[in-house]
Design brief:
single chain, 182 residues, two-stranded antiparallel ribbon, 7 helices, mainly alpha
């Protein structure tokens, strides 16, 4: 199993912890993503898990729906990506991505890993859960976000950076960079 596969497994476990702990009746709570509920955030994560492999010419078929079974839909999407990562042929599939030549595995690491970390916080904030994120992943994702340059501010990605003090935690600095109010 690769480092990327293990990193995905750990991030997915953190995300699953948040999804599984959403209190009854809280899926419709507003999230930090303007105009989105907690359910909308989860739907986005599941859809990106379904669609991202197609960038490399691969496919993932999902049968469960976030509206009917939030945890089941998420678990199915998570398991499909974990299976992709554990198959060296699929994980290593090369293609030309928006940032140049890459592999399916690298895209999972950079984009799905980013989404899992940040959207775990969004769901936690929306549903009154523990908002702490793994510090080593916060640093990695913050570096990746900065490397995206202006692409991070494209419509539908992240809003304008929120200003926080120099003494803010690394997690708060990441969230603020991504346009969230920590």
């Amino acid at each position: 199993m690769s480092d990327i596969s293990e990193r995905y497994r750990a991030l997915a476990a953190e995300f699953t912890r948040r999804v599984a702990a959403v209190p009854a009746g809280s899926w419709e709570n507003p999230s930090p993503c303007e105009g989105w509920t907690a359910r909308d955030v989860l739907r986005h994560v599941v859809e990106v898990h379904r669609d991202m492999p197609s960038w490399a010419g691969l496919s993932v078929t999902l049968h469960r729906y976030v509206d009917d079974d939030p945890l089941g839909a998420w678990s199915e999407a998570r398991d499909a990506i974990q299976a992709l990562l554990e198959d060296p042929d699929r994980a290593g599939k090369q293609y030309d991505g928006i940032l140049g030549p890459t592999t399916a595995e690298a895209t999972v690491d950079r984009f799905l890993g980013f989404d899992l970390l940040v959207h775990a916080w969004d769901i936690a904030r929306a549903t009154g859960q523990d908002e702490s994120l793994p510090a080593h992943e916060v640093a990695r994702v913050h570096a990746d976000a900065r490397a995206l340059g202006d692409n991070i501010r494209r419509s539908g990605v992240c809003g304008p950076e929120v200003i926080v003090g120099e003494d803010a935690s690394e997690q708060d600095k990441l969230l603020a960079y991504l346009g969230r109010q920590p």
